[in-house]
Amino acid sequence: xxxxxxxxxxxxxxxxxxxxxxxxxxxxxxxxxxxxxxxxxxxxxxxxxxxxxxxxxxxxxxxxxxxxxxxxxxxxxxxxxxxxxxxxxxxxxxxxxxxxxxxxxxxxxxxxxxxxxxxxxxxxxxxxxxxxxxxxxxxxxxxxxxxxxxxxxxxxxxxxxxxxxxxxxxxxxxxxxxxxxxxxxxxxxxxxxxxx
Length: 196
Known about the structure:
The protein is of the alpha+beta class. The chain has 9 helices and 5 strands, in the order E-H-E-E-E-E-H-H-H-H-H-H-H-H.
């Protein structure tokens, strides 16, 4: 399945969002004849609550994730073909999605005091690499601050871009912090398994 992620302006705990989502899904059914309905909600680990929606045929899934660890609510749309994915991407307008440009700007301005901003950028990035995001996450990987490096490692892994394989391997081999090395090793395994 093909997928796209959208980082929302809505934060975990904002229950009004689900009313807006239901309205957007009703509009999608009315205007595009795509019927998406709620399936279930579940707690995943300590920090994530996941709300699943899908079409009856299963050719489209919408997953809303409230991630309290990074203070972010995001949506993953997954579809069996690009036409369906493009058709339902109109939901992004109704749900107040943060643009990748805004997320990059926030990360540039606040990376040192809010390293999680790098993770938000990675969540909203495309399947293919782009120069601005590569440079931003690479800057985080080279930071003096271990928290920034940890979140940059996570961000590099989330993008699943091959360009991060060598930097993650270098961090795994030589970062002065044991936890950063451990996380980089795991991130590298995830990245390599996504890019056989």
